[in-house]
Design brief:
- By secondary structure, the chain is mainly α.
- It folds into two domains: 42 residues; 38 residues, no CATH class.
- It has a two-stranded antiparallel sheet with strand order 1-2.
- Strand 1 and strand 2 form a beta hairpin.
């Protein structure tokens, strides 16, 4: 139904109109901004589909921590439950 709707000449016409309206400097800025937006969108999708890595095996130096008795992941000393496996911390 829409097979012949978009052809290469249409893209050339649209780019020509954009060049006339925005000018070469502004068109470059718009293209750069659009590219950065697409990169951030793709990075957001990657973060959503791939969970962060497992917690570190050593405690962070800034916070007092203790290991979980079940999974040995380090948790902040004030935490009641392990953030990795959900076990109750004593």
């Amino acid at each position: 139904m829409f097979a012949g709707l978009l052809q290469p000449i249409h893209l050339v016409v649209v780019l020509g109109i954009l060049l006339l309206v925005l000018g070469p400097g502004r068109l470059r800025h718009v293209g750069r901004t659009l590219g950065q937006s697409v990169r951030e969108l793709v990075a957001g999708f990657r973060e959503a589909t791939h969970p962060p890595a497992a917690p570190e095996a050593t405690p962070p130096a800034a916070l007092p921590a203790r290991p979980c008795p079940r999974c040995a992941a380090w948790s902040v000393e004030m935490a009641s439950y392990c953030t990795r496996c959900g076990a109750r911390l004593e």
